[in-house]
Amino acid sequence: MKHGFFRAAACVPAVTVADVKSNTAHIIDMIRRAEEAGADLAVFPELCVTGYTCGDLFHNNALLEAAEKALAEIAAATKGLHVAAVIGVPLRHGCMLLNCGALVAGGRVPLIRPKQYIPNYNEFYEKRIWRTGHGLPEARVALPGIPVEPTLVSTTALADVAGARIGIEVCEDLWVPVPPSSFQAISGAEIIANLSASDDLIGKHAYLRRLISQQSARCMCGYVYSSAGFGESSTDLVFDGKGFIAENGSILAETERWSNDPHMIVRDIDLEALRHDRLHQGTFSDCARRLRPEAPATVAATPAEEAGDDWQLMREVKPHPFVPSTDSEIDSRSAEIVDIQAAGLAQRLKATSTKTLVIGISGGLDSTLALLVAARAFDRLGLPHEGIVGVTMPGFGTTGRTRSNALVLMEAMGVRSLEIPIGKAVEQHFADIGHDPAVRDATYENSQARERTQILMDLANQLGGMVLGTGDLSELALGWATYNGDHMSMYGVNASIPKTLAVYLVGWFARHTGNEAMRKALLDIVDTPISPELLPADASGQIAQKTEDLVGPYELHDFFLYYMLRFGFSPRRIFLLARKAFPARPAEEIKHWLRTFCRRFFSQQFKRSCLPDGPKVGSVCLSPRGDWRMPSDASAALWLAECHSL
Fold first, then answer.
1. 46 an active-site residue?
2. What's the rounded mean pLDDT across residues 542-567?
3. Residue 599: closest CA among 568, 641, 544, 563
4. What 8-state DSSP symbol labels residue 236?
5. Active site residue 616
6. Which of 600, 601, 608, 598 is nearest to 628 (CA)?
7. What is the pTM (predicted TM-score) of this model?
């Protein structure tokens, strides 16, 4: 394990039924391939030493003796290697024949885990051959040909592999109402290895994929699954060589099905993230204390290794973690997000008997999204759109592009539109406080923001309505909001929507509207540079004040925010992930904006401590009432020091 990542391999070797010598050679070859890939653990299919489909040959002494010798040979082949492997073997144990997963590492076999649940529904009638390991007392056994300490045979013990705790279950064990991996997880197992020989049936692959995903989520673990493939007998069943590597509900990788050749997938499982979630979610430890009060035995297998200079992360790191990966996911997820926002606003309107909303419409991304959601909420309550009052308030930096888009959008949506220029009022305010308008500092900018908020608040009083906030999660994280200006409202509908997600949501609305003028305006809003428009436009009338030039790219800040809040990662680990997610960005650029993020995130907490109510949409939220409680005077020194050491 390196940098908190555990590298796992799901291996499907070549197999010939009952040809133990050939199978052993293929297994050893694939173990060496896993070692070359830097794997900590390689998981092989059920009974891969002999082949799963040997039938009554498993009761033949020649096959069993060959399997025992093969296990010793495979174990010897791991001497001097870092990788540990879990191999499917038959084991004679007293008067029982057990279907087992054997952990081999460093020339030893420290642990053998028998299959607990023996099915009797397929063509092989496993109960005819095997006995269950359920209730079997732990025992130390001497295995033929392995001249080291006795092997622990146990259904509960875990193994320490490269600093991670490993649990093992075999095929059918996963399919029962309470899988053994559930107990292993609450006993401390962080990675579950499943050795399987799952024949293929119509629809079974998709069902199994969901099953593995759900079990890894429920157990907050990594799950490595390897199943028998080409070469097993096709007398009555066919095996497609399934392999999966999952992590906390996500499938990180899966093998190509129906391959005639040996194949292997390798991915890094984020053990630090899993440990964070187990620590953070108190119900996991509550369940563990209630159902498994005594810790099981743990056998040592392989030590952890330090990462070398040539170490490369073997997993995908999405540059936009808040945004779904595929177009179909974006479409369904966008609908769900908007429904959450609209339902939250509708409930607030109903609870306060409010039928009028006042929204400042700038022609920018956030106010556009807030307006679209407001219309959805009004539709939900059966209220006319005329109750939504959109207010454009041109100031010193307003451009024709944003103003035009705002007007087109409001007309297309049938809301009431007001335009109230703020220039004269702000100039009067400058005169009142003795500020020189030529000095374009924070006073120059924030006076405009507060003037706009005052207008909205007073209009809401006048109309008997409420002000709908437009600020988003990214702005709240950076404190990019004027205190008691755009920072304040009666309800903040975008409070947990990061900027990178807002882009996709507005684009989703554009794809689903039947109004061509509205579609064009929405798409242009998506393409408009993000700006508060508080400084005058350039000589050609274009936006001169671009937010990302000042505070940095929002795609980076959203990335930093996600991994800092969702998993509690340190700057060093966030930087490592960002290098993988943004290969085109220079390391120094990422470091620079990471320092900016840490500095602003800490210094601007006071703005988040008094946020208006708003609906939680995703797993990351900065509400001071539940999701993020942080002292406003907390020091960023520790985080900044680590940033500077990168």
1. yes
2. 88
3. 641
4. S
5. no
6. 608
7. 0.92
